[in-house]
Amino acid sequence: MTANNKSLPITYREYKFAEEFPILLMEGKSTSPQIDFIHFHNCIEIAFCNKGTMTWNLENRVFSLTPGNICFLPPFFTHGSFFPPQEGEVSCTYLFFNPEQLLAPFYPSGLPREFTWYQYTDFSKILPADSFPEQARLLRMILQELRKKEGQYRQAVRGLVETLLVLLYRQHRSCPVFGGTVSALPQLFPAVSYLDAEYASELDTAHLAYLCGLSQRQFLLHFQECFRQTPLQYLRTVRIQKACRLLTSTETGILDIALQTGFHSLSSFNRYFHKIVGSNPQAFRNDRRVIVKKDPRYAPYHAG
Length: 304
Description:
This protein has 304 residues and is an alpha+beta fold. A hairpin with a 2-residue loop joins strand 5 and strand 6 (61-65). The strands form three sheets. A five-stranded antiparallel sheet has the order 2-9-4-7-10. The chain has helices spanning 99-102, 133-148, 153-172, 189-197, 205-211, 216-227, 231-249, 254-260, 266-277, 281-294, and strands at 10-13, 23-28, 38-41, 44-51, 54-58, 61-65, 70-73, 79-82, 91-97, 126-127. Helix 2 packs antiparallel against helix 3 (153-172) and helix 5 packs across helix 6. It is globular, with a radius of gyration of 20 Å.
């Protein structure tokens, strides 16, 4: 089923992991009347539905996730999900990680290609439990280890994740390589990564196009198609997201934050901050200070 979500904003979520154990476990147990926004992030997401029926928007196609089933999403894959109002409890568990980081102790010289199969193949993102029973069992074991945190659990999780990726590779190695029928987003990975790292630099669309192996015209067309905004609009959003992090995690002055995130004046920073966030930077900082005091789970995308 195809969804029409052209009015929904697209957000890039950057997950920061603890260096010593780069994996994040999250739980979702609330309902919502609809998907509020579409996003993508810099790591794998694996969702395991425990109770209730979820609705997922996967690159503008709608799917249902029922108890026992898995949703496996590669990095930079646009998606959104929610539990619609329904009778009974709802619950979903989410895992976030980068195999290159998590399995680095096993493969210090870099992962073999079979562990990154998800980057090169076109595959169904919904994995039914009856077709993937071993993978579902392994995922339950990973979740149990992460919850109990008994002796040597980190080594156990790494080993189980390694096995899970191998089994998924065996299941999907006959899938077609990415071709012209899939989203153009994977081809824009280099530009997205560059903008995330060099957000304070001046925008150079010719360089971004070069990084992606595209002409400047092709790059701009693909970017507009994927993000429904220009590279400059996207970059301003990234800058504001970086500014939000600095506003809530440091006491750096607002003018300094504006300059650090690539804005040339405080007035320009304030204008775009209000346009994207809906408030001024000082009010945002003050509100988040209250949230931090009241809710220790604030900033859930950082593990450690």
